[in-house]
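Could you join me in thinking about how sequence relates to backbone shape in a protein? Would you write everything just below, so we can both look at the same thing?
***
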Amino acid sequence: MEKVKFNNGKLRILQISDAQDMHWVRKTMLWMLENACEDLKPDLIVFTGDNILGNHLRDYRFSSKKKEMSKEKEFEIMRKALAHIFDIPERRKIPFAVIYGNHDDMNSFTGDEQAEIIRSYSMNRGFENSGDLCGTYRLPVYSSDGEKQLLNLWMMNTAWHDKELDKCFSDITEKQVEWFKEESAQQKKANDGKPYPSLVFMHIPLKELNEFTQECSPEESTVNFPGLNLKKKKGVFGHLHEPVTPVENDNGFYEEAKKDGGVMGIVSGHDHLNDFYGIKDGIKFVATPCASFRCYGNPHRGVRIFDIYESNPADFYTRTVYYKELCGDNIISDFRLFWDADEYEKKKFAVLGAVAAGSALVGGAAVLGKLLKK
């Protein structure tokens, strides 16, 4: 597996979160992601979970009813759903890394079985762990010449589906925390006792992300949830449009991340409408909105970039790049957004119904006119 490296002194990471689609994909998302790769020219893509709607693989196309099918057939459907997004960096020869979200393995397959598909891609740069640590791993980043490690990217699995209990969990487990502690110690030892600068990527955010929001009056609220009025705190950049939904238990992971001393950012997805970042304990907490058009979203859906420079890898710049920045602010992008985005579903069918009714009315009037002439 080839190393992930800085490119002429700079590393640009493209984060894609909550692509959350199926084997019959909403094409507008793919258009947006293709444009993101073309325009933003990332050196690495990180998919931060809910890569597919894994719990809907057996759905009928126009119904949530489930089809009866073999496990082999369901596996091929999952492979096709994943291919929609992973084929984009594969064709362009862009390295990518993946973590799971709560929707990814709500199906017949274990994390390791799904990882077989991810590992089959030549541009995949992760998933060396298996079993309880599948989806949790460390990705080192090297200097432009490939000679020296300069950065760590920690990929933490925060969600999984227990097949026997048929229940979803959102935790960082004790085993993951122990793994992180051991890896952190080994990395410091390899770097003369100093931690490497690092970013942590996870799907479901830590509870600390809630500390960047506060209750407010209905007039000030930016959250459209009945009876819940929230806004960003001062010094927080971006948009807050839904309450933060954190992991149930991190089992002390955040304390260990602080002890590591090199963690400069903790990056999550999961909350589709949130697009903000703030700083706590010297760590930048980053919330990234969804890329999906099949699931709920808003005009702030898009992708996020991180720019890190080889001359100072302990610092980074980040911003969200929105759909209309990538696809244009014009009638074509407006129409595709209306046609494919989940939040317009009811309006779309209302418009289609009105058009059909209008067509029927026009057609009926024409027939009546002919009859009257006769």
Observations:
- The helical segments are 27-40, 71-92, 111-119, 174-190, 253-260, 323-327, 331-340, 345-373.
- The mean pLDDT is 92.
- Residues 198 and 263 are 5 Å apart (CA to CA).
- The first helix runs from residue 27 to 40.
